[in-house]
Structures are given as C-alpha cells and as structure tokens.
Amino acid sequence: MREKGSPISGLLKVLESFYGRQEPSWPTDPYLFLVWWHCGYPASDTACTKGWQSLTRDIGVEPDDLLEASPANLGRALRPGGMVPELRAMRLKEIAARVKDEYAGDLRPALLGPIAQVRKLLKKFPNIADPGADRILLFGSVAPVAAVPANCPHVLVRIQRGLERESYAVTYREAQQAIMAEVPEKFDARIRA
C-alpha cells in the first residue's frame, strides 16, 4: 500500500486544497453513530445532525433515555431530521433495546474479533449495510478498513476506470479495493481518504 505520490493521494490533496481537511461531523462511538444515523431521513450529515440536536436536547441518546421515551415524543424529537420520524423512532427503540439487552448497554466490547464477524453483527442493526458498518469500524477506531461513503462509491471508480459497474455492491467493493491498494492501513490515512 502506498499513499505518497499515488493517484488517490493526489485527489485528496486537490480536494483538501479546495474544501480543507474534513473531520467527522457525526459521533464516532459505534452506538452513538447508530443513533445519529437514524436521526435523519433521507440520511445525510445535515439531516442527521438536525435530528440529533433535537433528540439530545429533548430526549437524550442513552439506551434508557430512548426506551423510556414514548414513541410520540421520540417521533416529535426526530421530526427536524426529515421524513418518517415515527418509523425512525421505532428503529431507535429497537437499537436501544438490543444494545441494552444483548450488550449490557455497551456495544464496543462486542466489536472485537474477526472483522467479518464484527461487520455481520453491525449489519443486524436497522439500515446498516456494508458502507455503514465500515464507517463505524473506521471512525469508531475498531479497524482501519476502507470505508467508502454510501452515496458515492461510483465517484472513485469513475475517476479510475471511467464508468462504474451496474451493481452497487461491485462498485462499492472496487472503490474499497482502490483505497486498500493505495492508502496505508492506518486509521489516520484511511480516515483522511
């Protein structure tokens, strides 16, 4: 794996010269990320942050806070984050119950072990697929995986190959492989990418 002088390194330099160095605008704790991810729909940093701010102010985000809140109050708190707040409220209750009941209120110890096993565990939570699981693994400092933003794996593939694949899953894997080939398997380098 090489970064210095690699095509991806060059792309990152160009992007950072225009946008500046990017920092996560979401919680990096795995459980809190799961909650944050359901605070907005359609999920985006902006929508999730609006719902998160309202939820933390009005209800709280700990498993007991979410479980004790009525579905109506939880839905009301999530409304600033976008559509279907009632459905998102039910998903938050499911997440909180699972973390409390199956992991004694602390998800992090369950994220030790083989990455495939940890990814499978994370994908049992609502609306978490490979991109979300990889984001949790990387930004939660669990494993320095190549996490590609869910809404744009095609960008890197288009830049490197001209066209993305017809299958989202194949495109996602190709974007991951490109990062794995050129970006060192270190948290700071992979987070930057």
Q: How would you describe this protein?
A:
By secondary structure, the chain is mainly α. The protein is built from 11 helices and no strands. The longest helix has 19 residues.
Quick summary:
Helix content is 60%, strand content 0%. It is mainly α. The model has no long low-confidence stretch (mean pLDDT 92).
Could you outline the blueprint of secondary structure elements for this entry?
Layout: H1 7-19, H2 30-37, H3 45-58, H4 63-68, H5 71-78, H6 85-103, H7 115-122, H8 130-139, H9 153-161, H10 168-182, H11 187-192
Helix pairs in contact: 5-6, 9-10
Keywords, separated by commas or semicolons:
193 residues, mainly alpha
